[in-house]
Amino acid sequence: MAQFNVSSLIHRLGDRKQAVAADSQDSKKILYVCTGNIARSASAQYLSLAMAGPDSSWTFDSAGVGAVVGAPVAPHIDQELDRRGVDYSTHRAKQITQQLVSEASLILVMEQEHLNWLVHEWPQHRSKIHLLGQVARLRQQAGRRVDPVAFMHLHDEAPRKGDGIADPYRKGPEAARVAVEEIEEALKVLIPWLGA
Widest CA span of the chain, in angstroms? Predict the structure, then answer.
């Protein structure tokens, strides 16, 4: 019985690796997702661009599950990004689409509800959808040379409560400060791991 379970697991991991390779088509793209795409996911996108630099082989994008389509970055969030010298001037919120989901190597969301919504809409992409805070936390479990995309595609651990980043929208400057700081701290782990 134990041999069957081990071989079954090996077969399952092999199938996932093939699916990951076929799905990503060698793309190196991180898609950040929140609700409106004007606060958390937008912050993650532009902080990532700033941290990775113009010569990075990675691209970063963002979208919302209920996007305020066409809107710029939210008040108070803009001030936090300004403090960090991050350029977000071109941002216009957009709704997540099948194409964005398919093109992404990893989809990093801000709350469990976002993960649930995306998995309901696109269950075939479940292996690449994770909470941003979860990825930063799990980095410690990965070896020094482990590819982050492959590691996260094969990781089945459920997110923990502390992996989420609370929505700061319309909650004032302190909520915006906390959200952007939490995103920034997670990205300080993720961006170097990507080799970006």
Answer: 59
Burial class (CB in 10 A: 0-12, 13-18, 19+), 4: exposed
For the chain, where are the E strands, in sequence order? 29-34, 59-64, 106-109, 129-131
Helices 172-194 and 40-52, axial angle in degrees (round to 10): 40
Please count the residues of the chain.
196
CA distances from 193 to 26, 151, 186 (A): 17, 11, 11
Output the pLDDT for position 11.
41
The per-residue pLDDT for range 57-99, each reduced to its tens digit, is 999 999 999 999 999 999 999 999 999 999 999 999 999 999 9
On the CB side of 48, CA atoms within 13 Å amount to: 29
Instruction: Indicate whether 6 pLDDT > 80.
Output: no
In 3D space, the residue among 5, 19, 29, 34 whose CA is nearest the CA of residue 123 turns out to be 19
What value does the mean pLDDT of the chain take? 87
Q: pTM for this structure?
A: 0.85
d(Cα 69, Cα 92) in Å, to the nearest integer? 7
